Amino acid sequence: MQKKKIVKALFWVVVFLVMVTKIDSKPGSYSIVEPDWNNTKTLTYGYLKTLARRRENFGVFPDEIASSLNGAAVELSGAIMPIDDVPPDGEINSFWLVNPRAMMGGCAFCNPPALHDMVYVETARGHNPLKIDVERLYGDIVKAKIKGRFFLGPDSKDGMTYLFRIVRI
After folding, report:
1. If you ran DSSP here, which 8-state letter would residue 93 be given?
2. For the segment 58-90, what is each residue's pLDDT rounded down to a tens digit?
3. How many CA atoms within 13 Å lie on the side-chain side of 68?
4. Cβ–Cβ contacts within 10 Å for residue 67, how many?
5. Looking at the predicted structure, is the pLDDT value of residue 4 above 80?
6. Which residues pair with 96 in a beta bridge?
7. Nearest-CA neighbor of 98 among 109, 88, 86, 87?
8. pLDDT at residue 8, rounded to an integer
9. Per-residue b/e over 31-62, b at no fewer than 16 CB within 10 Å?
10. Which of 3, 71, 128, 160 would give a disulfide with 33, using CB separation of 3.0 to 4.6 Å?
11. Which residue, among 162, 161, 129, has the nearest Cα to 144 in the 3D structure?
12. Reduced to 3 DSSP states, what percent helix, strand and coil does the chain have, rounded to the nearest 5?
C-alpha cells in the first residue's frame, strides 16, 4: 500500500513539473512551418476556441498544434472590423477578422468578442490591400474569406492583444 502511495505521489510530481515547464515556456516563441499553398488548412472559429482553451489550460499552445499550424497556409472566413479609419478608396492593410456570430450579437464595441473570435489580419508587403465598399461597411456586416499565413500569439497591436494573426497574401 505504501509503495502505491509513493508511485502515485511521484506521478503527480512529474505531471506538475511538465506543466510548470510548459507554463514557463515563452509564449509566442514557436517554430514556424513553411506554408503549403497547394494544401491550405481551412480554419473555423470553433477550432480557434479549442486552441485558445488549450492555451489557457497549459499557458502555451501545445507542441503538436504549434509545430503544424504556426506559419501554415490557411483560409478563414469572417466579418471585417476595421482597426483604423477606412480611407475613401476602401483599401485597408490591416483589420480584425471576427466571428460573424459575435458581430451579430450587437455592437462589437459594447460587447467585444472573445479573443478566440478575433484574428488580426495584416497584408503582406508587396501585396495589394483588401478593397471593401466603405458605405456597405458602416451599414452592414461585410464578410470576407482570407487566405494567408497563420501565426500563434499572444501578441498585441496598438495595445490590443490577440491570440491569432494571419498575414494575408
Report:
1. S
2. 888 888 888 899 999 999 999 998 888 899 999
3. 7
4. 14
5. no
6. 81, 120
7. 109
8. 46
9. eebebeeeebeebebeebeebbeebeeeebbe
10. 71
11. 129
12. 35, 30, 35
pTM attached to this predicted model:
0.77
- What span, in angstroms and rounded, lies between the C-alpha atoms of 99 and 80? 9
Task: Supply 162's cell numbers.
Answer: 490577440
Question: Quick one: how many helices (H) and strands (E) in the chain?
Answer: 5, 8
Calculate helix-pair angle for 2-24, 45-58, nearest 10 degrees.
120
> In the chain, what percentage of residues exceed pLDDT 70?
79
Q: With beta carbons less than 8 A apart as the criterion, state whether 45 and 9 touch.
A: no
Q: What pairing do the DSSP bridges indicate for beta strands 91-92 and 143-157?
A: unpaired
| Cell representation of residue 97 | 477578422
Beta-strand relationship, 73-82 and 94-98: antiparallel
CB 117 within 8 A of CB 46: no
Mean pLDDT of 95-116: 78
Give the list of residues 6+ apart from residue 132 with CB closer than 8 angstroms, or none.
80, 86, 90, 92, 142, 144
Cell of residue 102, nine digits? 459575435
Q: Which residue has the cell 516563441?
A: 29
